[in-house]
Fold G2E3 ligase.
Amino acid sequence: FLVGDTRRIIREAAEKSCFICCKMGATITCCETGCDRTFHLPCAPHGQCVTQYCGAYRSFCWEHRPQQALQPRPTQHNTCSICLDAVEDKISYTTMGCPACQDARFHRHCIQRLALHAGIAFQCPCCLNQEPFMTEMLAMGIRLSKRPPSWQSDQEVGPSDQRHGRCDAVTCLCQGGREHAEANGPWQLQLCSSCAAEGTHRLCSSLDNSTCSWECSTC
């Protein structure tokens, strides 16, 4: 972005209200043509919105988010393949499934945590499929990590691989780019206090200087 473009985006965001929390400063707009719903990135899960953390980083509101086309399973098998707790008897925002085996079901928050921990080894926890499974999870808004699995030894994962170093906000306002970070101020990079696998510049997620911790939308 040029300086003028950055200022314009900040000014426009300040005038938009989040349709979830109703507060001003919403920087994300639904990508569906004709939809003008805007929201904050931290509010997205509460409003069942989806952000695709790849390609053009598109975001969608609850009405226009992508949907999985999977068949319902028999009631007696409605458990999460990861935590083994009950899931809904149909596919929804919070209940997802594997497009390859059509059998695995899991909570959105469970598959998101698995994706962050598994890194480049991310696959269906039941059929172990990677390609169509990973592609679908990306489309459904699951954030993938390019790091080795967290269960590998420290000797296999160097220090440079352990700390996330980019802004993952849907709209990054920093003129220096997503990897630019400063020690203080609006371009200070804040990592998620839960998973440390996502980050944001303070200004890109409307965090003031008094905010000591930040949690990403997937956590």
Q: What stands out?
A: The domain at 166-209 is CATH 3.30.40.10 (Herpes Virus-1). The CA atoms of residues 6 and 173 lie 6 Å apart. The radius of gyration is 18 Å.
